Each structure stands twice: as C-alpha cells, then as structure tokens.
Amino acid sequence: MKEKKKKKSWFKQTTRVVGMNPVTFKENWRFNINKLQLLSVICLILFVFFILFYLLFSFTPAGILLPENIKNRNKEKIENTLSQIDQLERKVQQQDLFIRNLQNVILGNISVDSTYSEQDFEYNDEISASDTLISEAEQQLNQQIIDSREQPNNLKNILLDDIFLFDPIKGTLSQKFNKKNHPGVDIIAKKDETVKSCLEGIIVHTSYDDKDGYTIIISHQNDLTSVYKHIGKVLTQVGESVKTGDAIGVVGNTGERSSGPHLHFELWSNVGALNPLDYLSFGR
Q: Is position 2 within any domain?
C-alpha cells in the first residue's frame, strides 16, 4: 500500500513554471503542472507531430524521400530495364537468325524450295517467347524467299529508287541474272583488280568454301544486302563499317565454280534476289 501511495504522490507532484523578465526579474506569468499533466502534454505534442509528418509524406512529393518508396522506385526501374534488355535480346536473336538464314540461302546451304510445315510450328506451352520469335523469323524469311521466286524478274525495289549504287567493279558481263538458278551476275575483270562496296554498310560475313572461294556479304540500309564471291583476297573483316566505293577485296579465281578471274555479284532485298543490271552498269 505504501508503494502505491508513493507512486501516486510522484505523479501528483506539482512543478511551478514561472516566466520572468531577465532584467528586472519581475514575474510575468506562472502556472503549476504535475508530472502526469506534463507527460500528457508531451504525448499530445508527439502525436500532433506524428500526424503532421504522416500527412506530409503521404500526400506531398516529400513521400518519395522515404526509404521504402526509394526502394520501390529503384525496383521498378530495375524491372523496366530488365524488360527492355530482354526485348533487345529477342530482337538481336531474331535479327541474327535472319542474317544467318539469309547467308545460308545466299551461300547455297539452304534450298530456296525448302518450306516449313505447320507441324514445325505447333503450339507448345514449354516453348519460350524467344523461341516463338525465332520461329516467326524463320517463317518470315522462308516466305520472303518463296515470294521472291514468284515475282517477275524485272521487279524493282521501290526503296532503291533514290539510292545511288556504286559499281563494285568494271568489266565484261559473262553471265546474266536468273532468279531460279543464278541469282546474280558474273563480271570478268583483271586479276587483283580492286572490288569495291556498292553502298555504305557493315560487313556481316566473310568466308571461304570450295565452291565459291572467298565470299563477302555486306548489309546495307533499307534491308539491302550485297554479295561478292570468288574474291582473291579479302581486305575487310566482319563488323567493319564501309562506305560507298571502299575497297573490300580483290578480283580472284577462287572456288571450283570459277573458271577465270571474275566477280560473282548478288543483290538481295526484302523482296528477294534483285537483278543487279537494273541498278548497276559495271562499266558497260
């Protein structure tokens, strides 16, 4: 009982607060307050500050300064960045596949008569989104190749009307363009004569095989691709940017299909193989 009385008396202990003039020491105001009242006032002040801070950070831009909001914003940025990276990776995969398949068609590794059946593209829940994009790219390339064979030989790509193509070499025409079995032209020229890029672009492929010898493939604007075969010496490398008229190789006699120094030149676009003679003179 004594302890309870002591606790009660402690809460009820009164403190006098006096306001005085520091010069005259005259008492201006005063009031009495016990410890319980003092604690109540402190709690009330803290509660009011809490409400003010809550309203400030909840309904004003100051809320973005809270650690949790900063964390959420960073998380959202990371997720958006990862999503963009994933989309770019898919586009790169699709573009790489398109280029590889186009290279294989140009090099004769894939027949232009080959088609895909519907069974090759049946729906499968386990197939990832990137696989679906790749399948679509394969179908698109295959359809473009098939459609290109059905187009008349004198078809011109409208996108090329305003583009100046540079003669990769000047010489004598020995074999004309035939969409079915010779999708390019053969130009006889002196051995070691410089072969030049017909248009600004990027070297996407260089290789050597027994049939066509050294081959260079350049990717240009407007889905245009140029192919140079039977090169004697390659002067560029994959990934290198070239301008119109830049030297990319020299005339040679490489490959089993070559019977003398000449250049086999092909021009491809989004409608398939184009007749180079519609756009280039080769010094004729």
A: no
